[in-house]
Structure formats: structure tokens, C-alpha cells
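WARN no homologs supplied; continuing
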Amino acid sequence: MPPHVGLDAPLHPLTALAYGLQHVLAMAAGLVAPPLVVAHALGLPPDQRTLLVAMALLTSGLTTWLQVWRMGPVGSGLLLIQGTSFTFVPVAVQAGSAGGLALIFGSALATAPVELVASRLLRPLRRRFPPVVTGSVVLLIGLDLIRIGIGDLAGGVGIVDPGAPRHLIPGLLVMALVVVFSQAPGSIRAGAVGLALAVGYIGMLAMGRIELAAVAGAPWVALPHPLASGLEVRPDFLIPFAIAYLVSAVETLGDLTAASEASDQPVEGPIFIARAQGGLLADGLGSALAALLGCLPNTTFSQNIGVISLTGVASRRVGLAAAGLLVGLGLCPKLAAVISATPRPVLGGATTVLFATVAVGGLKIALRDGMGPRNQLILAVTLGLGLGVSLEPGTLTGWTPQGVLATSLHTVLGSGVAVGAIVATALEAGLPRGR
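OK structure emitted
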């Protein structure tokens, strides 16, 4: 059904702002979860967690504006909201453990051109990365992330009582709230994860289990400081980040198609190709900007396409209003400090569901073309090797020789997602198709 407010329809600024706020609320939890998960996994102090969250909000607003406004060849001109990508969380944790934030941002910046090149190669991209390949990789990403989410739910790494009731009970209650809110109608369902996080946060605050010293010391307004964490590039992390960008590009292409359909726009032909190329360009440039400002790469958010269908409003003015709100939030470190103080069990209760949703989404993508013997074999071998390496990272790395190439191989072969992506792509290219 076409939207009742089309792509170019004028809206009163206050009306656009109200709809824009709905989009921000729908994606808020998914936006702040990746920087918080990475920050906790790396054991970053509160001030760095606050900075990561603030830059995620600011970058989301800037890249959303780039995506929606459509400057020349850059941007799709669709109501698509950009945000921090879950796809990069596993490799970011891996890079951050090896070289800190500088290595994460340097690797992300150095490999951002992968998505820019992908924008000019739409047909080969679709052919080489059919649903069974991209779905298998997204499924692996989700499964890898669940391990992080469940660790947070248990209280996090390095505490004296992981899995104690004082951690598990709040986390499981938040998870239950996600389920309950997901059954509610309309806007409540769209913001189920964010609402569950808010309730869990307030409950922990009432019990005195949130440290607010960082909140008290954070300013209300502050300008960004590009390159505050520095940049470092190491050859061994270029391939894992490049693979993540390719996966992100294919996911974005799917979002562009879904958003075009929801907005009653063409989903094939020259108009769609131009929009898709512009959308991928905005994705790549936005991710480069994210690295410079100090946050993880950005991508389009699928949940906001559901908001278009829910409200029937596809006007790009709503996207511009949402972008303005996100920029304003990103310039308020006080708010970022409040968010970054989220207790790990509360975060884990919500993100475990989010990450499982990523895995289920990957499985749905993999099943899109059916599950004949060929696709079943691709999925099975990809999962077997990819998940196996995620569980036992040293499985394939014992034989690697010395030198720079060896270091690169060691990093790639120690990443379940990278191994899975390589295996799925190789099988797709090499296995004969049924007659």
C-alpha cells in the first residue's frame, strides 16, 4: 500500500519533527548498543564510553542528512536513517583488543573505499553475494554477537560474581520486557527495546546500582574533536574490515530496495540504480566520517523502514528532522554520559535479543532463494567453519608462517565471520548449479 504522505510531500516543521522523533526512538537502542558493547568489551573508562556514544549520535545525524538530502550523486533521497552498524562489532572488538580505538578507526577509514567501489558495481555485487552468502554471514555475525550480549547479561567480563542473581535477574527482566513491549501495538512495538532499556535503567537507578559521577562531570554542550583517539592502520585488519564493508553494502542494498518499495518508488530500472548507488556512496562516505569523528562505521537501519509502513509517512523532511534531532543529541555529552552509564546486565538483556534478531534476520535472508541441496551445503559448511572458529579462534591459525602476510592470515583465520564470508563466497563461486 502506498504511503499517504509521499517522498516529496511538504510537512509543517513541527509535524516533521514529531515523526522524526518517532524514527529516533525506534532506532535509539540499536544506535547506542554497538558503541556500548565495544566499550565494555575493551574495558574503556566512563569518559571514553561517553565520547563513543556522543559521536555515534552525532555521526548518525550527519550521515542521515547526507543519505536523505541527496547532494549530487551522494545519497538516496529516501527516508532512510543511518546509525552505527552491528556488522562491525566483532571485528572492532578484535581490533580494539589488539591496538585500541586508534586501530579500530584507522582500519575503518582505510577500508571505507570498499563500499564506494561497491556502489559502482551493483550488478556484480548482487551476483557474487546472493542471499545465501550474505544471509549466512549475517547469521554468523548475529551468533558471534550473542556471545557478547549474554556475557553482559551475566554481569560482564572480569567481575568477581559473573552469573550471580543480582546480575541475571535485572537482565532477564529487561529481556522479558522486550518480549512484552514487542506484542504491543504501534509505536510501543517499534520502540520495544528502547523502552525495556529505559525501564531497566530506572529500576537499577532506584536500587542505587548506577554510578553517576561521570554524568555529573559531563558538560551539557560540547563540540566534537576529530581524531581524538588517533588513527592506526595494520595490514592484518584490512581484510576483516573490508569483508564487513562488503556485507554492510549488501545489507544496505536490501534496505534501499525495501525503503523504495515502502515509499512507492521504483525498485528496478535507472531511477532505482541511481538511488542505490547514491545510497551506498552515502554509506561509505558516512563511515569514513564516522572514523574521523571517532565511532564505528554507519549503515542504514532496517527498523526505520518499518516505521514508514507503520505511519504511512515517507516524506524526506521527516528524515531531515530526525537528522537534526540526532545531531542535537550528539552535541550533549551529559545525555551521552547518562546512556553510557547503562548497567551491563540491563544492556545485555536488551542486546541479547537484538543480536538474536540479527541472526534470525540473516537466516531469513539465506532462505530467500529457497534451501535446495546446493544452498543447504553452502549454509552448512559456512556455519560449521565460521561458528567453529568463533568458538575456538586458534583452530586455523597454528600453521601460519612468519611475516606481515602471516599476521594478516592469522587475523583473518582467527575471525569466524571472516572465515565464514570467505567460505560462503568460494562455495557460491565454485559449486555447480543444479540443472
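The chain has one domain: 13-366.
OK
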